[in-house]
Amino acid sequence: MKTLWQALLRAAAAADAFVSNGGRLAGFGSVFSLRGKRKERLELAEWRWCQMGVKWCSRNVPLSSSEGWRYQKANRNPGRREQSLSPEKMLVSPMAERNKETILEVLADYVDDTRSAFGLELGSGTGQHVVHFAQALPTVIWQPSEISPASQQSISAYIQATKVTNVREPLAIDVTQPWDQWAGLSQGCCDFIIIINLLHMTDQGLEGMFKGIGQLLKPGGICLAYGPFAVNGIILPECNVQLDNMLQARNPEWGLRDVEELRQLANTNALRLERMLEMPEYTKCLIFRRREL
Ligand SMILES: C[S@@+](CC[C@H](N)C(=O)[O-])C[C@H]1O[C@@H](n2cnc3c(N)ncnc32)[C@H](O)[C@@H]1O
Predict the structure, then answer these.
(1) For atom 20 of ligand 1, which residue has the closest CA?
(2) Which chain positions lie within coiled-coil regions (predicted)?
């Protein structure tokens, strides 16, 4: 039975590599139809789980996710990695893997690579974003943060595995707490604050979070907020409406935030919504700038 399972896994890994390289597998059934409708459905489900804060890839990796396969392979063959690393703690978000480069492209426009800077990430999740940004933007010292201990461990494991030297160990920050309880960060210490897919999962903490951002950013500093948003009360397209409904079913205070609501919150905290960019998968990047004194 074990041998049969191992043979199946080897076949699946080969199929995954083949399909990942652009191949098509006819006749293998739905498990391997990674480029078909099943994959689209699976990715949409992953997106929703991710948005709802489900630990989407910790152990129950869906069979048809190629990212999932990579995660499983890393954990089944720990000997292939250095013994000191903790690959089993490295959570994988396929969504983060897909969006990290496009977010980086936006962020890079605001980074001056001739001077050092300090960037804080709130709700860092797995740690995939922060190490990616750190590798591409070495003049910035990055400070990830998370409420979830499993995510904090994952971030540390990514720091260790990638050997990045410009990412600090994650801080335990709950954004619903007053900003002066955010792990002792001092007023005006940040050149950048990054928030990815977090705003729709904060309830009464939203006002406090914007107050914290206004307090922690230096004058002229930038807050980049990425995710799906409503515009003038309208949510588009249908998959974002469904996501909004699901979030509210889970917590009536959650849901997609309206850009206008955020603009007003920003204004009351010395921040100005400077730019709104359309991003892939019906998301946006909002760029807020801290007013000069
Ligand atoms: C949808 S996930 C996004 C994670 C990551 N930014 C990404 O895009 O992959 C939301 C994250 O916010 C974290 N989170 C939820 N509530 C939080 C809070 N009150 N304070 C800080 N982080 C929180 C969750 O633990 C989770 O990792």
Answers:
(1) 174
(2) none
Query: Is the shortest distance between the CB of 258 and ligand 1 below 6 Å?
Result: no
Q: How far apart (Å, rounded) are the C-alpha atoms in residues 95 and 46?
A: 8
Tell how strand 217-227 and strand 283-290 pair up: antiparallel
Q: What are the start-end ranges of the E strands in the chain?
A: 117-122, 140-143, 145-146, 171-172, 190-196, 217-227, 271-279, 283-290
More confident residue, 287 or 70: 287
| Contact between residue 163 and residue 140 where contact means Cβ atoms under 8 Å apart | no
**Euclidean distance between CA atoms 65 and 268, whole angstroms:** 43
**CA-174 nearest atom, ligand 1:** 20
244 token code pair = 């909004």
Taking CA 154 as the corner, what is the angle to CA 51 and CA 140, rounded to the nearest 5 degrees?
90
Distances in whole angstroms, Cα of residue 89 to Cα of each of 36, 68, 85, 154, 157? 31, 14, 9, 5, 6
Q: What is the pLDDT of residues 85-140, one digit of tens each?
A: 789 999 999 999 999 999 999 999 999 999 999 999 999 999 999 999 999 999 99
Residue nearest to ligand 1 atom 22, measured at CA: 123
Domains of the chain by range and CATH? 94-290 (3.40.50.150)
Confirm if 153 and 229 have CB atoms less than 8 A apart: no
Q: What is the DSSP string of 129-161?
A: HHHHHHHH-TTEEEE-EES-HHHHHHHHHHHHH
pTM: 0.78
195 CB under 6 A from ligand 1?
no
Ligand 1 centre distance from Cα of residue 185 (Å): 19
CA distances from 234 to 108, 227, 231, 257, 281 (A): 30, 15, 5, 10, 17
In this structure, what token pair is assigned to residue 190?
A: 């940040």
For the chain, give the number of residues: 293
